[in-house]
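Field: sequence (string)
Field: structure_tokens (string)

Example rows 1 and 2, in order.
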Amino acid sequence: MPTFDSSEKAFMQGYHRLNNLVGWLVFAIATVTYLLTLEPTASFWDCGEFIACSYKLLVPHPPGAPTFLLLGRIFSLFSFGDVTKVSVLVNTLSALSSSFTVLFLFWTITILAKKLVLGRPGMHDDRGLEPSSGQTLLILGSGVVGALALAFSDSFWFNAVEAEVYAMSSLCTAVVVWLMLKWENRAHEADSDKWLILIAYVMGLSIGVHLLNLLAIPALGLIYYFRRTERYTTAGVIITLVVSSIIVGLILVGIIPGLPTLAGSFEVFFVNTVGLPFNWGVIIFLLLFVGLLWFGFRYSFQRKNHILNTALLSLVFILIGYTSYLIIPIRSSFLPTINENEPKDVLSFVSYLKREQYGDRPLLYGPQFNAQPIDQKEGAPRYVRRGDKYVVAEHRLETIYDDAEKMLLPRLYSSDPNHINQYKKWVDIREGTRPSMGQNLSFLFRYQMGHMYWRYFLWNFVGRESDVQQAGVLWPTDAGKNGLPERIGDSAARNNFFAIPLIFGLIGLFFHVRRDGKNALIVGLLFLFTGLAIVLYLNQPPIEPRERDYTFTGATYAFAIWIGLGVLGLADLLRPVLKADGLRAGIAVALGLLAPGIMAAEGWDDHDRSDRYNSVDSAKNLLNSLAPNAILFTNGDNDTFPLWYAQEVEGVRTDVRVAVLSYLNTDWYIDQMKRRSYESQPLPISMENKDYVQGTNDYLPFVENPSVSEVNLREFMQLVTQNSPLLQVRTQSGHSLLSFPTRKFFLPIDTAAVSKLNIIPKDRRSQLVSRMEWDMGRSAIEKKNLVILDMLATNNWKRPIYFSSTVNTQDFMSLQPYFQLEGLAYRILPARDPNYQPQGDEGFVAKDLMYENMMRKFAFRNLDRADIFYDENQLRFPANYRDKFARLAQSYVDAGDLKRAKEVVDYTLKVMPDKAIPYDYYTPQLVEPLVKVGETQKANDIMDTMTNRAQQALAYYSTSPNSGLFDLEVQLQLLTLQSVYRAAEKIGDRPRATRALQLLQQYYPQPQG
């Protein structure tokens, strides 16, 4: 070991202190940025669920995120009982995770930069080497530039200000990379392996956040190989990568689901075969496993096998971190209100970990999209507890395809007709032909890699066109706005970085490769495995419900290292011109700061969520649409998770039972609906578990019986619960299942009893029917539909039943004539709307009730502020508001109450003005009420504004080389013109109607052939 005198030690400590000080300064900048732009409530998508589950330690969707939930619970405690602060505190967890990621990235860059600046590339201990003042400026400057470039990058910033797992996942990646570099500087010390064991523990914890962190293992493996090997070889590098990849596979398959699966096998054997009580199989497995570990440690001590001992210690610490997952079955066993998949025992826990409810996608070998199945076989059994044994509830069916219909690396695999249409946008596919490997790879490179990865990558470092889904890259040459629709040209998300971050990153990449090939390879592997490798693993379908750029922030992190090192590359380019180290370093750093500077300036307005309340307000407004003790059917994600947040965290309308339609296709969720939740009594479901257990009544096909013209719903449900032979039919495989013999259903109504309940408004009492009649209009009834029918037959109108107005109309089962609109939901009542038209508006408008809800109860916080950015997802709910306000105003016009109609339309335009929430295709519905109340000029302005915007947008998309990607945008503009045309026709404005019609005819897609 080298020795140093006191002055040298002081000098070295000076660099060390500066490195720490500047790092914490960068951390402070990132933290202040994220706290200033933090969303104050629960964002859309999974955030509402994660906040609710953190607050009460509930069980979210598989595979869960227990480490995140536990930390979120700790953060939520700082609300000190003020439930409105819980969301911002859990969001702050993401903000701090992100700023700590920036901190560790800074220190990672300075470690790598120091090697380059001091001319000591490779793997060695350089802690004793002290840079000069100019070199120090260069090293620290590169760290600042790279770290802030990550801090202000589009995808990373997006994750930093909401309660999702990706910010904490990035932190885990940043920590393990930094720890590995710390180990590399200390690898010669006797106790250096403690750093490897700490890395194993962090990785174990990261499993409870997200699995993305494991993709750093190959890069870490190379650091280990280069540091432990004096003379490395290509074969050695390849072997290291293979071994590292095997380690990743062992953790992903062998540890995470593998150990619980093995424990489950022990459990079934010792309970069913040996006759032990429940859970004894798991206990025996744990005892054997601990015994094997003890034997392994004993053997390593006896043989003095250092590598085996370190490997076993690492395994143990991974498992210690992984034990955060114990919270899932523990909390599930208490039957909490959110308990997805109900993984309360080891067998259901394995299913939860494997995400079996989502199905799977072929990865390395599988069928192409038009492959025809030739058989089905029974796969792994699914066990449930019954009595004192485990019994097989069902065997998961596996579809068998002919080998001739399969291919390597199948990318064109989905047989969904919508997906097939999307495939055709990327690959020239002919009907009925098997895609070639060339077409398969073309889709991989053009869509999965090009559109769903490189596009996102360039968003972060070149620029982004807008927030419209499928938006492209904004290159420096595309800075102008001529000819662009307002929705694109004026979008706050239209960010142009003039490719400056990309240029710095490429300079850093080439400089790194030229000066330090080993470490450049490590960063490159990190970039590859957290980017393109994920693309291969995900095998994404050709259309997604939202952009997926948040998945690839690991690659953004890796490229930010090169952006930082780009400062060194620039300084090296300036060397022939500027000889003074300090001046050259200062200019290089100053120029380097342009990258994060322009990213911050361009990105602030679209990443600032500090005054957005739309997601939670929309949930509260929907809940407040409902009568007491209501049952509400919703879609998933954005229709449901904000509702869960409002009920679980803020305690809003806990008398309402939210029933998610997609979950009602599962037995565990129906079981939960039959239990009490807060103020909500169990749902009125007559079916027993045997009637809906998975594999039973998953769907009932329509098999016509000419002798049955119609069926009484109550009698039908009785036949279902009796598994009656009258409904049974045989499938081709020989199995029997229930069917329905006619699409025409009826439900007798006890009108006297209904009248006593006083649920029919006074002005509708004449519409009360003695029996409800409807045509199911479906070829099959899914389990969720069966549950709804059961409740209609069982409830006897004692509890109000609603559909959210955003539910897919196919799930209404043609019950629309009996809908009553009271706000943002349709109530089912035994009163038939006399004016119902199949192609018209749905739901009889209960004017006074709806007025009370929307005008007095609903909150529309900050939807009138033009300085707040509302992205594509945020704009969907205000459109729903406008539709309902227009329905209310029109109903008052029809009733001759023009004063109330004017009040409604004026309020609509006040709380959601065009300057803040741009007019949508529902807005023209306000035209007729505006004209009727004497506001013709406002009506004309709406029609002209919307027609002009639609014309500009359609002209743009019709000439865009990527027009096929924006079918949804084109359809929305055509719907807008259609809505304007109808509005103009209603008020007799022929010129405006003619203009809208001509544009429709010009741009409406013409049939081919």
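Row 2 begins here:
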Amino acid sequence: MYLNCHSYHSLRYGTISVEDLVRDSARLGISALALTDINTITGIYDFYKLCKEFGIKPIVGVDVRLDNQQYFIALAKNKQGITEICRMLTAHNCDGEMLPRQNPNLPNCFIIYPLKNIPEVLEDNEFIGIRAEELHVLFQKKWQQFSDKIVVLQPVTFRTKREYNLHRILRAVDRNTLLSKLNEEDVCCTSETLKLPSQVLNDFKHHPQILMNTKKIIDQCGFEFEFGVPRNKKHFTDSKDHDEKLLRKLAYQGLKSRYPENNEIAEKRVEKELKVINQLNFSGYFLITWDIVEYSRRRGFMHVGRGSGANSIVSYCLGITDICPIELDLYFERFLNLNRKSPPDFDIDWSWRERDEILKYIFEKYGRDHVAFCGTNVEFKYRSIFREVGKAFGLPKEELDALAKNPMALHDDNSVVKMVQKYGILLEKFPNQRSMHSCGILISEEPITNFTALEMPPKGFPIVQFDMHVAESIGFEKFDILSQRGLGTIDDAVKLIKKNRGIDVDIRNTRISKNEKTANEFLTKGKTIGCFYIESPAMRGLLRRLKCDNYKTLVAASSIIRPGVAQSGMMREYIFRHNNPGQFEYFHPVFEQQLGETYGIMVYQEDVIKIALHYGGLAAADGDILRRAMSGKGRSLSALQKVKDHFFESCKKQGHPEKLSQEVYRQIESFAGYSFCKAHSASYAVESYQSLYLKVYYPIEFMVAAINNGGGFYRTEVYVHECRIAGGKIHNPCVNKSILQTTLYGEDVYLGLMHIEKLEAKIAQFIPEERQENGEYTSLENFIKRVPIGIETLQILIFCGAFRFTGKQKNELLIEARLIMVNFKPQNRYLSFFEEPRKDYQLPQLKRNLFEDAFDEIEILGFPVSCSPFDLLQTKFRGDVMAKDLLKFHKKQVRMLAYLISRKHVPTKKGTMYFGTWIDSDGEYFDTAHFPDNLKNYPFQGGGCYLLLGLVEVDFHFPTITILKMAKMPFIPDPRYSVDSGKSFEVHQKINEDVSMTSRKPYPQEHEIVLPRRKMS
């Protein structure tokens, strides 16, 4: 009877979660239920599982609508029926085919039409649905012929009056209109609720034939699905046997390459891993991943394989990863083991520019019928909730902004806002729209539409209608194809070095970019701006505190910087032990033997396995079960208790005292939930070191590449500063030298046209293309004749110095531009083959202030290029102390003058505190701490230079200044507006700063860390 139920996967329509729909149905004694969300099958697999759990017969299908006009309901008779539904929806979503209004070609489905859309001829599998409130129409004679074709239709969209109101709000959000302007056809009927079965039967008690027809449909729907069966493409070759042989061959070829000298340990490990991989039927998965990486290598692309896949020596030999698991003592069981049935996990990064070509290869190689991205549900978030719901209630933009930006405690206390809050809270965790998973791709053995309909988001690659968790539960192992700008920086730097210096850098050879002496010196000093993952103020501070001077310490740093490790106090304890190796004892000999590299602290997820294995006596696979039971999705208290009991039983057999074992377990429990996979840290560290190697030996090329890849943690200005410090001669954009991106000629760095804020992208692209095709621009007039540009854009180019090759001042060029443009007709741009002789005329000499260019640059580029920000200050004072000397001033007050780079907000119990990063007039970086009480009297006032008074605290080689007083220092008035005092300080507001927020708790102090520093017997 409930053949048309909507969950909240009927986006901006349904109000019930799948779980609540099934639970409530079970409570009401409903024995069969159909989930028919609007134009989607998103929820059917969770629905099927829950129905089986609660003893309800699951029926699955779809409510087919166009612009909320219901065409029909399709119910799958069997698995083939869902396939037919999915292909129909896919054709509509991806190929633009119209949804059939009537008589769809779905032979394995029952079709139920609403009264408003009955076709002239009903096929054998087609029926008419009638609601209780529509029964009166059956007294008309024409309906007698349909006696065996009419079924009960009791749609379900909401449960309560409040949910009906929520449904109306969702419809207003979807329609982008006010609640008061909704039409009757925009919303569902007030009867679409989960009625008691007895009530529905009572409604139709005079129509036994209708009830019988409905029961027949319910009985004949038999959708069955088997979970946990692998659905990925089974074989890379034509069979399992050939896959195993090819994988073995490739693994041993890679073994010879990775380990030129015979290495028995490596060979034994390869054999052990191949046995497990083949036993779990993952040979094809490895080979498909290898094939993608091989294509990338043939195209000359860089990739980084990371994640737990780097625990595998087979993936190392195949070239999927670049981490030697023997060197770093990485456990294969962390990646795959016979007790772990979940799929392998390869995360592979490419440059953000090259990823789309990799995706195109995958889709073309394996066929668009078999490949799709994972979907994801974008939920209503705090800001979007209050904006959307508030708009439906008719609130003006100013009030919507206030609701969205402020916590509920600060909202206005009026009846409308209270209604917005009341219904807004109900929308938390509701899906708002479907989107594409950032990286997860499914490659299916069967056509993927056997399991899901596909949608086509703007990106251009089809997505499935469910998320990665559902994908995994129904048997799909995703391939994570990621992109990042750090890799793009490395790749571009290598190409730029070749172009600029003629040097080939084999950056893939990790032996040349690990533990280089000069690179280690840079690490120790935290000179890592621009380098992947290790450039943030927090990371640079950590590197200095550790005096990090080798690759393995960098691997550890990449892990302990993670929020969980830092917040637990283990980062603080690690720094202490690293700097004071004689001031602690190892908790137990096993901790010294197995965790000596990290001073007895469990820093990595693999450490949990080590302690479980070597202290607890568990098998490595059981150690991984322990790690998984404590962390991640699917954490089960019953599973955790079972593993905990097993751990203590095993410790007792080892002869360990119970008190000692309890402390070991406490440590495992507190670390396992947040620790970082060591292979992941090692992969990050390799890429960080590659970045650092290039920064050390080819700094100008590297910084230009960083600028062109959108930098990283900081704004463009900071990377330009780094480039200048490295010896680059920075030039403003030039129409004869610049291209879209920043470019390099020897040591001359020309900023790209893309950095000119108000220059249209198509013009920025056209200028260098025209120059390349027809030669350099010879004059301003020549440029105007060749480039379709208006006077305002032309003035911007003049002001930023793009025509300085002419040797003329900006004032002169501006007058010349206006004279040319007055009589210039754009249609005559390409009429003359030869340049007509130019009329010479003399213009008056106009004097320019030395700093006019700097203010032009701030206005157009966002930062000064021709001088330093310090040169623009009204004061000549540069501070009593410079950053390079701060280590000498521990516990002493200093007065410094500095330019603000970034500030990070961190909430505390007493309010928000800030951490600032600055440069002094020498260009050196230093850091400050600003506590809430101090900020009340000495707040930040935007970007610019500040005079700072503070107390230096040196914490393990790293100085931080706790600010006591702070004042923003005034720049000189803008000389371009010397006669207009109102505008002389306008452009100063464009001086930038980088602002970041975090919700992390303050790091614990030493006395709050509960890790014993003395041996327990």
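free_text_note (row 2): The radius of gyration is 34 Å.
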